[in-house]
UniProtKB/TrEMBL annotation:
Entry's transmembrane regions: 21-44, 50-68
Keywords of this entry: Membrane, Transmembrane, Transmembrane helix
Protein name: DUF3188 domain-containing protein
Organism: Arthrobacter vasquezii
Record keyword Transmembrane present: yes
Length: 74
């Protein structure tokens, strides 16, 4: 048996390499899209309701969870 076949059993398992990256990407898309929508609607003179804050809050939550997951393994 060669030593390159696998990890020794006494080593702890490695965390996944891209932990939290999808949540960070989704959060950034939601936050940026919400701000663009708010700026465009304000420039045009349209109105937006408080429901506009739901994607913003969802995006911020995704960003926070993604960033904390990313730093969990360190």
């Amino acid at each position: 048996m060669s030593s390159v076949n696998g990890r020794p059993s006494w080593l702890p398992p490695l965390p996944p390499p891209h932990r939290g990256r999808a949540l960070i990407a989704v959060g950034l898309v939601l936050v940026i899209a919400t701000f663009i929508y708010i700026f465009i609607m304000s420039y045009v003179g349209g109105t937006h309701t408080l429901y506009t804050l739901l994607p913003l809050a969802t995006g911020l939550i995704c960003l926070i969870v993604g960033l904390t997951r990313r730093n969990e393994g360190r």
